[in-house]
Amino acid sequence: MAAATACALVCAAATLAIRQRRRHGHLPRVGPPAHAPSIVLEKRIAAAPAGLYARGDGGLYALPADAIFDGFEAFAASEAALAGFRARGYVLIRGGFTPATTDAARAELEALIKEKSPAVASVYYEGEARRLLVVAGHDVEQQQQQQQQQQNWKQKLHLGSVARALPDALAAAPARWKLVRKVMGFLHSGYPALLATAEQRGLVRAAEAICGGAVSLFQDMAMVKPPAGREKPWHQDHAYFNIALEQPVLGVWVALSEVTEHNGCMVVAPVPPSARGPRSHFMRRDWQICDSEVTAGRLAGARTPVPMRPGDVLLFDSLLAHGTDTNRSADHRWALQYHFKNAGCRSTADDVPRLVVFGGEGRGATC
Questions:
Q1: Any idea which architecture 52-115+191-363 has in CATH?
Q2: SS3 71
Q3: Per-residue pLDDT reduced to its tens digit, 106-130
Q4: Can you give the residue ranges of every domain in the chain?
Q5: d(CA 9, CA 5)
Q6: Structure pTM?
Q7: For 316, which of 69, 90, 141, 228 could close a Cys bridge (C-beta 3.0–4.6 Å)?
Q8: Rounded to a whole number, what is the largest CA-CA distance in the chain?
């Protein structure tokens, strides 16, 4: 309670509504980051195998009606909602956010990525951005290969070249913002429309119900998939967190635009809880589940695309296997993603326990 009150005092310059919501204490920070954002130039990756994100069971598998709720109020009122979430590993909330909230958040996000140094923790660029630098005489690909020869296993998990400022060639490119694929660490009073999405009371209550009490929002990301934007290979979110496996972690995926199979909607593989344990991850196109497990293993028949309308919210368990395909449309696909944990849950800086559970190569597994 004292920490939440302190947060409210620090936010004294914000609106009364924001100060009151802040007392819930579930948000990660109060003000903008104290430093310029990390600029991450990701590698160009190979194309995904054909059919990796196609519907399972010959295209017949679809979202069951009892996995869809019209608003957070319907989810809260249903006695079967939590049981259904635990059985499938996800639920879809139709119209979780109003059009006004969704439109304002999208407009603010679009303005944010057009800034050269936004008040965020990090900005990730598509691998295509490296072509601009090679043309300008800065071969980031070659530099990255040289650096990796001297890096240890933990550092190799990072796919991008990191800097604190945009390279001149990229900063000068008129269409630079069209190569942004992800933004992290933007939830603060400097971006009130985005902040409002994380403070929506229906969302927080759903997170509390799923996580079993007061929650902490510990990660915020904007998933901007531009035209031809890369896939996010199949994975389990818990494989990225140094949080004990028995601790519930809730993923939240918010559509800010129309999201379809053509532009890279979420594709999930709901399997029974008994089969939803940790899966080996490997460094291939990303830190990912082996493609063969998705195309021919148990996950193959369960692949379920989740098309969404603006304002829809997908709640999913951190052990639910999922991925998103390349954006094959001419427009951006806009989305937000948050992660909640129980407020009493603690993460650690030690990667070893997580890699023992999820790291395929470290255990001698093959892919």
A1: Sandwich (2.60)
A2: coil
A3: 999 999 999 999 999 999 999 998 8
A4: 1-30, 52-115+191-363
A5: 6
A6: 0.87
A7: 90
A8: 61
